[in-house]
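Structure tokens please, single chain.
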Amino acid sequence: MKSITYYFLIIVGFIGCNSILSQSLEQKVDAYITPLVEASDFYGSVLFAKNGKVDLAKGYGYADLEHEVLNTPKSVYHMGSINKPITAIGIMLLHQKGKLNIEDNIDKYITDYPRGNDIKIKYLLAQTSGIPSYNDFSDYNVYATRENTLKEVVDWFKTKELLFEPGAKYDYSNCNYALLALIIEKVTGQSYNNFMRENVFKPLGMMNTGIFEYDEIIKNRAIGYDPANNKYGLKPIGFYNNSIKVGSGAVHSTVLDMLKLEDAIYTDKILDKETRQLMLTEVAENDYGLGWGIWQRFGKNKYDHDGASPGTVAYFSTYPDDRVTIIFLGNINSGVFNAMKKDLAAIYFDEEYTIPTPRKYIEIEESKLSKFEGRYEFDSGRFFDLKVIEGHLRFLWMGRGELGYLLSPLSNYNFYMRARGDQINFKVDDNGKLNATYIERSGESKLKKIE
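Here you go.
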């Protein structure tokens, strides 16, 4: 098989105008993404547009590494949590039509939901319901590998204790959007998939967008990969049933289709101006509206959402003052996408950014990894386990029993988690005790070893 670097230099799919701006943009984006492709940290497609017109749309790396199929702008990717603003558009359409009201309590539609008389639809949209996310449940992997109805998913978490009083504060939860999908089905009498296809995807012309089914043949589907310590730095993701994520993270699409989502923000094609303003207004200074991130970047207003899941990363962002939209979808679950969100915007808006430098990893014998095993706790009470599995140290969140995230050693005591973009450093103190520090975008946290 020829090298990955060689194949990256082949034209992998390009759509754009022939202007000097576009040529310059392509060169800058190529220079930024090339080291990520060579390090097996990003395969995917990117798109830049202004006023609905494409400046650049291009694929990078492989849609299928084993068969050397390259990504193009037409490659289809699972998008993870970008499903949430799409679900929000569906709910806001029903609100606009008077089929429901976002101020309604959810027990109006799901009569047996505990404390449903205290939880408004608006709280679900704004991530302020207090309902915990099923990602933190110890039996998550059981539900992620079986077929589930929306009712079964909701029944799974509805008896969980609320984290706080509904509406009191922001806390991101996938369960909120499973509930919204079930409410759509209750109100319309249609499946979530059929309702979204007929009322959102078709009117917007998103003909390559739908619910990502594990057993469906999807033309141009990109195979998902996770980081691995092997020749290619990657492995195909294991079996994963997206029925657990309907409403919150089960949609697939292309960058070209996702550009059409602009029309739900800037035109009356789906939602009228009043409803769009309601959806795109920040709630309680949470940097989050009703299904959308409400931010500023480089002094510019921005609506966005990201997504990450086994074998995928995704990001949709649009800047309303300039009507600039930047999208990327990828088929490697890698933490580099967090830096890409800012850096690709910096490239377009001529702001400062840094070309990525690939990390260098070492090999550590399995016998020398056992001293790092155990359960580590944050000050918040959330925890993770480190276990040696198949000869490598792995990160398992909140007691979940799956294979977990691979930790790649940077040195004998420092480990990088490619899937999350986080790092765990260990240091032996004067008493011979092993202390751990967790490093992420938001800062550093001292960890307490509890087992």
